[in-house]
Amino acid sequence: MSATNRDPSVTSEPEPVDEPTSNLHSLSRAVLARKSEYVRPHRIRIKVGTWNVAGCPGTDKDLASWFVDGKGVEPHLDAKLARMNLSDSNGTIEINREENTASEGAKVGADSEVQEGPSSSDKPTEGAKEEPNVRLLASDKIGLYVLGLQEIVNLNIVTQTFYSDPDAIAKWQAALEAALPKGYTLVASEQLVGLLLLIYASPEVAETISNESTVSVGTGIYGLLGYWGNKGAISSRILLGETTRLVFTNCHLASGHDQASLDRRCWDYNRIMSQTKFTPINSGGIIQDEGEKLGDEDFAFWLGDLNFRLDGLPGEDIRRILMLHSRGEYDLSKKHTGEIFSDDGVIVLRNNEDDDGTNTPGMISREASFDKDSNDENTELPDPDDFVPDPHDDPASLQATLDSLLPHDQLKRMIKERKAFHEGWREGPITFLPTYKYDVGTVGLFDSSEKQRAPSWCDRILFRTRTDVSQYEKKCQDEIEAKKKDEEMKKMGIDKAADDESVLFDYDPATDSSSNNPAYDDSTYDYDEYDEAGDTIEQVVTKEGYVDKIKLDIYTSHQRIMSSDHKPIVAMFTLDYDAVVPELKAKVHAEVARELDRVENEGRPGITVLVDGKSSDKNVADASEGVDFGEIGFLRKETRSLTIANTGGVPAKFGFIENPAIQDDATKRPTWLEFKFVPSQVSDDDETHNTLGDEITLEPGETVSAVIEAHVHDLAHVRALNKQTAQLEDVLILRVTDGRDHFIPIRATWIPTCFGRSLEELIRVPRGGGIRALVEKRQKGGSIPYTLEVHKSSPSELFQLTEAVATLAERVIADENMLEETKVPRDQPGWPFDSGSQQATNADTHDRLREAIIEALEEDKPVLETIGADMPATKRLEAMSEVLLLFLRSMPDGIITTALWAKIEQSLPNIGAGNTPSEAEDIKAAILDILATAPYYNISFVFLMSMLTRVANELVSLNKEEFEALRKTGSGASLGKRSLSFRRSTGRGSTIDLAAIQRRLAWEKKTAEIFGVAICRAPTSSNARERKATEDKMRGVVEVFLRQDRP
To answer: Could you tell me the pTM of the whole model?
Structure first.
């Protein structure tokens, strides 16, 4: 790929940049507006080749010679090459002026792109027929090689019409890559049964190619899976230099000479046009909404075996006329000797046996088209009368014969009738022999089989530009408007008013129905001279607004390639286009990004977030460094505050949002952080009363505080932290509307706790120091291994809590007897264990009391000494009871494990129902027998039941008669509706308070409900009724142990 001296041809005006916004589209638009700064002109050569190999073996071995090396052309059988001078070839023809040279020819300068002389590898072997040193431009002077092959597999084999053969692709790729110069890169490779499209680019061009998209469309026989791929097309779209869209389509249309086959070819073409759709273009990270189709490109090239034939002429006549030309016998003014000429005359490839048994040499005339002796610049110019006349005007020339055949070409007729290839498609001048059908192994012998198919230009290379498509669409629109205008004039009755006056100006040859000028839609052939595409350079305005130029340099066949019954053809194009220079674009991109950032930041809200120091010295730090809460334990609350200031020039609206990572997480993550906004200048006592909303708006210069509270309270979270499967880390996101988000890392260090651990772990904690001493001794956290020594028969934490609760219950009764202000809420069932029955108190005081109890348990200190005696006994009892239940609920295995519960449920299916005293005793014995199989759990259960009995006898005590009456009623029995103040005499000087018995029964039931669920572990049912039945059984296990004799 080479750069030229022409200026970048950008036609579009600089695009106005919209108001800057922080998105990729605005940046891309701004960069595009400065495209003239990073776009430079480039030029490449594109070589397009097509060949129907007819499934013949060995065709891959000829690929290098004709497609890459440019050999196999026969100038004397191409009317254009025969008369082309070296200077007229534009560097596309390479000719050796000295015959039979053994030395390697010197290369001419790169500007001319012409090299002389054969390489050493091109020298003919002894005894072999030497080929003339005339070949097309090849090697590394080509920027893009585009090869379309047809029938690379035998289409007569049924299975090969369904599937692609990877071995076939590999064979042809290997053949082409072996011939290409070093460094060429595969851009596209696609097979559709017998079709194969290969695109290779030079190293300089390959790095500028993007957005490659290749699509296959089958048009063969219709079956259950759609249209088969034995016929169809492969299309590949590439974006060259980020500016120019190129599309290459390799096709194989329906075969056959009859009208039905012709109609099918037109149908094939239209299906390919309508069904081909490429992936959307990705330009600078912006993807188009819809994919592009054929017609959206800047330059399109259609190649392949189109299978269009010659109509209206006998095949035998065509073969005879062309054979006369190939033998040099068509021009009778030239004497034909009938002898076999040397290389300067004809090429004899083999003798062909005629029908009469005689052998006729198959010869190809090669009239000299270059004066080999006129290299000297001082050579005298020939006389003008000696110049060869224009072959179009010479009735005896090959070109004149071709001109007489081309009007019968079906493709030209279909274009004229607008049935196929009429949307702007063009073709270079056809100056070469028909490409089909030849006897394999011959240069110019047409089909000599029984079918004797008429020669035809089946293999074609068409092209069109965006301008061609636009002109066709404009022409169609003009016709529609003209037709509408004619209809309007007819309605007005003035369509024939000016016939006489404007007859000379309104004459349209296309509407003249005389016999000498057939109508436009008439199927009669138009035998006027074939209108070929010239060699002029065409300017094209691309979709991106650049002005590119394309020129067809050569369009010919390689007549000397004989391994197939088709001749390969090539077309070579020179493309001048404006391409992006990546280095220059990167520089512009950086400048635009900086400018957009500057402009955008001036109009965006901006805030500054600082972390206030924990101590009174008010040390502050940038919030981006994070907030460290230090050590945090179970149910210990820690707070930190942030100061948020609006440091921008516009009002700022912001608020905390949920972390997207948490939203996307399938498992629900525990919440251990809470945050709220408070005024900047507010005392600690007023914080809760002046909490602001979830979203704050600050004017420039204003500030606000945000309080972040860390509080680990979820028991599942506690267990995960103890096991070290979770960490106290998170990220708070402060979302600023129309501004940038602020990410505030949060971290804390977990203090291992005795809560959330199993009974098997807790009995292995050594005495003195508790769980904290053990972790410090082991120098690591995590679960406590069951391999450690057992130090206790029951967790010391459970023993301390049960003893403290029983002791405080006795203290509460003593205070009630001595202090008037102390009242035991006996009318509240389940007190002090039921949280709903606890007396109102200051929340902060209660939390501090609970934290002190938990810390004493973790350090194995006496809990009663920790909480002090200045607190009312009722408050201390409530706090101690809450911690006890929390401890029991946090144990993963409970006191009655899942395995023990399964045994109890199996042995005592009716537990929880009303039981007689004797039945209750049997139930207790059965439960203790089952628990005896797990001694540590049994001891813990006994500790707990003993404590509950003591608390019940203290808080809801009964006298001996009342207690005896209660025992006789049985568990859960009803005493009937009685007045709470009614007392009945026993006749022995004592009375029974039925209300007291009722209170005792209610207390026992409520307490059993609370502790049953807290200590038992059973499978959880999703059915509410089954879940309620299980909870009733758990209550029954505890309730039978609350009915004991007083000591």
So the answer is: 0.53
